[in-house]
Structure formats: structure tokens, C-alpha cells
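Researcher: Please translate sequence to C-alpha cells.
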Amino acid sequence: MVKSSGFALQWFRWSLVVCLLLTPVGMTPAQRRSLPPKVAAALAETNTILRDVSRLRELPIKRPVKSGYRSRKEVEKVVIQDFESSQTPEEFAAQNKMLVALGLIPRDYKLREEMIRLLTEQIAGFYQPKTGEFVLTESLVSDDPDNQRIAIAHELTHALQDQHFDLRRFEKPTKGNSDRDLAIRALIEGDATVAMLAYAFDGRMDIRKLPISIGTLLENFGAMSDDPKQSPALAAAPKALKQSLLFPYAGGADFVQAVLRRGGWLRVSQTFTDLPESTEQVLHPEKYFAQEHPLPVTIPDLGAELGADWRFVTDDVQGEFGYRLILGEFLDEKQAKRAAQGWGGDRSALYEHRKTGDLCLIQVTRWDAPAYSQAFFDAYVARTMRRFPSHALAQPEPGIMVGDGVRIERRGVDVLILEGLPPTADGQAIINRLTTNGGSTPR
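Model: Translation complete:
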């Protein structure tokens, strides 16, 4: 049990526990014998903490959980291995270009190198579904055993999740729908975060009766410190990456908190079968309970309309959380949240010029009602004007904004966006094809 008198969340300030589906780095018997005393003491408590978490989370222990230790250098190797095994260099390059096209990272930002540096810095512990092992890292070892126990409780929740719900089924990302993957990630991390807090509160408060949003609690306690001295990699990271790292924990915890209040831990466990389908459902649990499904949106091959020198790179679903980031990069956060509400579905397709490397981004967004599409249209126009202040936008008629390589058009509940459009392409013809490709049906 946590015996400190105050609520122990300090560890969140200096390290964000990231549960990655990582490849193992084995420890020899000699390495185990030579563990630092603080590490050995922490690992010795694993079984006791596992029993406590099992009781609080209401998930029986099916098998023992192995435990190990990794130095910071070993963690870096594991992170690199994960990058290399989880996706091809071409897939990672495509994601990088999508972030550039959306204005979320600079064109010259070294995404792979910085993500490796960021994760190596931030990972305090992780659980490996492939081996069933909990790993304590050098970053988590401290003079505060209570904080260590809380972080271990988070990771051991993942071990219980794996024993009951099979986390390995989430190892491979959903092709073309990172929004769904992020929603599932939010369930996994949100569950572990709420269980971790139940462990921290054990004997003093029922986590189900907590009168405040857990996400708000984490944010108020400084869940992600961007102090350059404490976390230089995090402090230097683009805002969108920071918010994406925090969302599965804070946003996921709020979602799980709502599920827990509705039907207890049994209902949380059932959610691993009836998975959330979008970050909209995570942000608005009532939409998850109402089974408000994302609307399907497709984009046809536009290679012929763009020209022979343009090649398709990738496509994806941004989701409500994604559009919060996209709008919030250039607008006020509250305005971004309001404008992203009422999201129904979307798809983005990215093309690249074979010779120049120029990027053309096509987005089709679908909203629940015309009022929502109007709010998003207005916000995206404002965002575009701030992102490209030298590009004069004109409004030839209501619901249409055009500028240098840009066309934003609202048609009913749809908002269609073309950015980086080559001068030779007919933007109106592309918009017409996108509109006829799929209907505009509110949910």
C-alpha cells in the first residue's frame, strides 16, 4: 500500500510511463545478481503490488509476472528495435510527411531521432506482452519508494490486461486509421492510469467516488513536465507530439472513469471486447455508450487530376482529437476544441511531387450537422490564414475560400480541403469528384 499522507503523483512530473509493445532485451543471471540495491528492492515488491492491483482492478492473476531492469542505454536500444520492427522506413517516412503537410512539425524536423530521444527520456517502465515481463528502467529508480510502487502498479495493470484481454492483438496498427488505434491506446492506458490511482488511494478513497475528472487532476499536477532541465527532449518537442503523448493517459483516464462510474470494473473489462472506435468516443463517453459510430469517408485516386508527376504517399483518419491538434496548432485551444466537436468522420490523402518533393494534402471531413460543419469551416479558414499569412484567401461565394494552392469548401455537412494544390490542377473539379464519391449523411 501507499503509506504517504498526500496523493503521490509527483512521478508524473518527471517521467511519463509509456507502455510499449517492445522486443525484449534479456538479462543474464550475473546481471540480476549485480542489480543496484534500490532496483532489487523495487523488484522484490512486484508480487505484492500485483496482488493489490489484482484486487483493486478486479482481475484475477492467471500467472506470475516476470520482472527485470534496463539501463537508459538499454532502453534506447529497445526503442530503436521497436521502431525498426513495427513499421518499414517507408511507412515512417509517410507519417513524417503527413505531419509536415498538416503543419504539426517543421519540414526539417528529425522525427525518428527525436522520438527515440523523447521515448528514451520518458519511459519509466514498460510491460512486454511478448514475454510477459514487467521492466523497471533507470529513469524510475529514485529515493521515493511510494512513487516507484505507483508506477509499478500502472505497468502491472498492463500485465493483468494482457492475461485477460491479450494485448498482443493490438501490436499491428490499423492501416489507414490511426484515430482508432489512438482510441484503443487510450482505453489501455486510461485503464492502467485509473487502476494506478486506485492503488495510490487504497484505504483512503474509492476511486469511483473521485469528485474531479482524472484527466484534469493529472494536468493540474503537471503530468508532463516541460522543464528543459528535467526533460530536455520533451521540452524541445513540438506541441502536437506532447499532447499526443499525454492523451492516452489523461483523455483515456477520463473515458475509463466514465465507464467505471456507469458499470464498475466489470464494465471496463467489457470495453476490451466492445472497443472504442474513435477518439470522439473517448472524448465523449456518452457517444460510446450510444454507439455513435464514425461515418465512413473515402477518397478516390486523384493521381490523374493532379498530374503524372504526383504519387500517392499515404492516407489516414485524423479524428476529433486529431483536428483538435491541427486547429490548436494555430488557434486558441478552446476554439479548436469547439470547432472539432460534432466530428462525424474524415479521411486525409497525401500526395507528393516526384521531382520537387512538394506535398498536396486532400482532406474530406464529415460532421454531424450543418452547424458543426460551419464552425469547422470557419475555424479551418482562420487557421489557414494564420498558417499562411502571405497567402491571400478570397471568398468567391459563401462556403468557399480559395488562395494560392488552397481551396476550402463547405457542402452541407462536409468540409473539403485542398492544400498544396499544383497550379495545373482544377480544384473545383477535384472538389466535385470528392463530393460525388460519397454521400453526406448526418448520424
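Researcher: Any highlights?
Model: Residues 11-289 form one domain.
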